[in-house]
Amino acid sequence: MNRLPGTQQRSARGSRVSFERARGIYALHVTRDVAHARIQLNDTDERISATSAVLNLLAKADIPIFLIKLHKSGITFALAGSDLSRAEAELSRLNLSVTTRRDLAVVAIIAGSMREFSGIMTDISDALLTAGATIYETGDSHDSVQCLIEAERLSDSITCLLETFDLGAEAVTERPLQANSEGATS
């Protein structure tokens, strides 16, 4: 009889088959060559139109961004490192103060349902700080917490996160970004 990976067969006593993933943190997804941009807006009265101009400019240039944060006086976001020079060239047209950095990585901590855990951000930040990593941005979803950190601290960060969540090395997978550099498709 063929079995699907991750499923259980009924024993002779009639136990139930479980198709649910085990609860708790079960994986780390790593994305390398990530850049970060911080854009200072000139006039807080024009914040909405300046924010819209930045986002529209990047969209028209086909430069995907993520981990977007809208601040009172600026915008921050992440993007593929290979798209950084194009983004800088496009953003220079807006005459805004732009600060960028390329040598970053995203580590995403994955669980079946993050909403079931209290104190998870404390555990994650403690592990990353123990590894000596600076956390530039965070993002979250129903099943993950994403942290933008320095690429040079990635190995130590993974080690600390694996220890914190009692995971083995097989829990780590690489997830490349699909950049749109020079007409490439994502």
In short:
With 186 residues, the protein is α+β, with helices and mostly antiparallel strands. The chain has helices at residues 47-60, 84-92, 120-130, 154-164; strands at 25-40, 65-71, 74-80, 97-111, 135-140, 144-150, 172-174. α3 packs across α4 (154-164).
Q: Distance between the terminal alpha carbons, to the nearest Å? A: 39 Å
The average pLDDT score comes to: 85
Helix content: 10-25%
Q: Give me the secondary-structure category.
A: alpha+beta
Radius of gyration from CA coordinates? 20 Å
- β content, as a range? 25-35%
Q: In CATH terms, what is the fold-level topology of the largest domain?
A: Alpha-Beta Plaits
CATH architecture of the largest domain: 2-Layer Sandwich
**Structural shape:** elongated
Supply the number of structural domains.
2
> What's the CATH H-level superfamily name of the largest domain?
ACT domain
Q: How is the biggest beta sheet arranged?
A: 7 strands, mixed
Number of helices: 4
Number of strands: 7
* CATH class category label of the largest domain: Alpha Beta
Order of helices and strands: EHEEHEHEEHE
Q: What are the segments in which pLDDT stays under 50 over at least 5 consecutive residues?
A: 1-12
What would you note in describing this structure?
The protein is of the alpha+beta class. It has 4 helices and 7 strands, in the order βαββαβαββαβ. The chain has helices spanning 47-60, 84-92, 120-130, 154-164, and strands at 25-40, 65-71, 74-80, 97-111, 135-140, 144-150, 172-174. Strand 5 (135-140) and strand 6 form a beta hairpin. The longest helix has 14 residues, at 47-60. The model is unreliable at 1-12 (pLDDT under 50).
